[in-house]
Amino acid sequence: MKILVIQQKMIGDVLTSSILFEALRERYPKAQLDYLINSHTMAVVENNPFIDNYILLTPEVEKRKSALWDLAIAVRKSNYDVVIDVYSKLSSNLITTLSGAKIKISYYKSYTSVLYTHNIKRLKHTNKACGLAIVNRLQLLEPLDIKIQAAKPKIYLTSKELETSKQFLISKGISLEKPLIMISVLGSGPNKTYPFEYMAKVIDQIVDSTDGQILFNYIPKQEVEAQAIFNLCQPETQNHIYMDLFGKSIREFLALTAHCHALIGNEGGAVNMAKALNIKTFTIFSTWVDKATWNIFEEENVNESVHLKDYQSKLYSGKTEKKVKPHAMDLYQKFTPDLFKIKLDNFLKSL
């Protein structure tokens, strides 16, 4: 049997959907299990022992319709028996339709349901700690007679990566005996980034409570923004921040994060990666993102999260995510750090 799972776009999505492979391997131990993902997300699933092959969507494929068509034809020639389309957008609709697979599974949409043999309706609520993002993905396995209650994404770092990052931290003056905290200072865009002045106050609180060592998660092209947040922090806080110590690649970031006591900051891929490394997290959700979907494995003093809706629910009464999104920046101004100061302090005491 040959099975293809399609999950395009964001790092957090690709990592979360990788949970399907361990379950598939247990049910079909001799099957060929392949993963179609964007090339820039490969780092979070590298070395996964349950995945046989990776089909990478490069920027060229995304830009040129002819390249996407060629990819779809290549997938067809692979003769997959099952295609699980987690992404469920136009490009994956095309790839799945042309695949020739007898079993095609995706989420239910009225305008694409005819393309699939099994259309799974997403749940809108769950009382399971693993969260909706996990629960809904696991539903996609049910047509294959695989029913499991929960699964947690995992990242597979090598012993060499861990040792190299450890020595790098030590060489930069980091003490592994003191609290080491990674800050997700920037989101994937302005409407997913906690206001700079508020983030600075959060970092001030972290240093004041823990006397810890602070690392910023950012990439070189975000240096100006990261520096701006650094400049807004109190002088004493700045003495605890190692601005020149950051991962220059996703794998380097992962290896550094593996040695941290916690990751705190904007919701996004960094938070999902930290959870997959079993690192404690405290997540500040964007004002328009649905917390119920992405606060996976929420647990007191382990994985905690805050959202403006937790404190001012009337602002969201009767409004969908789509309606709230255009007002994200205005809502951020209402999401002041004092709202969750006590909750953050209690979390910090657990480190």
TrEMBL record:
<dbReference type="Pfam" id="PF01075">
    <property type="entry name" value="Glyco_transf_9"/>
</dbReference>
<dbReference type="InterPro" id="IPR002201">
    <property type="entry name" value="Glyco_trans_9"/>
</dbReference>
<dbReference type="GO" id="GO:0009244">
    <property type="term" value="P:lipopolysaccharide core region biosynthetic process"/>
</dbReference>
<keyword id="KW-0328">Glycosyltransferase</keyword>
<dbReference type="GO" id="GO:0005829">
    <property type="term" value="C:cytosol"/>
</dbReference>
<protein>
    <submittedName>
        <fullName>Lipopolysaccharide heptosyltransferase family protein</fullName>
    </submittedName>
</protein>
<keyword id="KW-0808">Transferase</keyword>
<dbReference type="InterPro" id="IPR051199">
    <property type="entry name" value="LPS_LOS_Heptosyltrfase"/>
</dbReference>
<dbReference type="GO" id="GO:0008713">
    <property type="term" value="F:ADP-heptose-lipopolysaccharide heptosyltransferase activity"/>
</dbReference>
